[in-house]
Amino acid sequence: MQWLSDLVAWLVRDGFGLDPAGRLGGSIHFFIYDVIKIFILLGVLIFTISWVQSYFPPERTRRILGQRQGLGANIMAALLGTITPFCSCSSIPLFIGFTSAGLPLGVTFAFLISSPLVDLASIILLASVFNWTIALAYVAVGLVLAVLGGTLISRMKMEGQVEAFVFNSPVMESDDGHLTRRQRFDFARDQVAEIFGKVWLYVLIGVGIGAAIHNWVPEAFISALLGQDKWWSVLVATVVGMPMYADIFGTLPIAEALVGKGVGIGTALAFMMAVTALSLPSMIMLKRVVKLPLLLLFVGIVATGIIVIGYVFNAFGPMLL
């Protein structure tokens, strides 16, 4: 979106009387440009993806997953998670519905990992911030993490670690995807409004933090804490990201600014993945439906996977940028 960057630069220079290359002008340019870019992409992408989602409501997704078993079911769950993008907290009710409907625990956890971590809108946004190679590599490792996580949990036979009420929860029968074109349009439009209502503040906060990092936090400080030569950088990024709650749209500008300051791409992606897959609010909600051993197993598997992915991207990421 070079045209947008140039337009914002003109606004900062001629409208605000600031140098877009200066610290204050650069921060304002970063903020306005990223907010407009993300909102434009979100509007178009959410509408398009929601139209696709209208063919895969939760009940239909449950039926599709119920037709498969084993590794194939985990792979299908991870793939369906990419076209049914829910934040980690809103994935919990689906986890309850899938489990109460009799789906294997590994399948529901594969979906639970994939859904907030990888979705079509985030792929395109990630490509717009970095490039398509990074975006597709992120998708691949996210799906692998979801499949492996679901498979490991399945092998551990942890069904007894799910709270009893989950299995007794009523399964709501929802629309099976047979909608008119007008209904699909209304659904997609409503999804745009609903998701915007949920994420706009996180986008503004994320872009604001990104602008501050990009133009106000000294590069030497960032490098000393999270530089590519620091072995602990991925661990710190993962631990810092876990208590937060945001979706990938709010974390992307922060990751962009961190990489611009010399932070490894793997460290930035580890932060993003920890925020989206292991946020503290979602873990609190998950603790309500599973017992502590299963919760710790889930957190341990996902956190370990994120850390490994971070180090792998730090090692090979420069070849992808």
From TrEMBL:
UniProt keyword DNA repair, yes or no: no
Compartments reported by the entry: Cell membrane
GO terms under cellular component: plasma membrane
UniProt key word Membrane: yes
TM ranges: 30-52, 73-96, 102-127, 134-153, 199-217, 229-246, 258-280, 292-313
Xref: Pfam families: ArsP_1 (PF03773)
Classification via InterPro entries: DUF318, UPF0718_permease
UniProtKB keywords: Cell membrane, Membrane, Transmembrane, Transmembrane helix
Membrane-topology descriptor: Multi-pass membrane protein
Family indicated by similarity: Belongs to the UPF0718 family.
Protein name: Permease
The species this protein was found in: Novosphingobium aerophilum
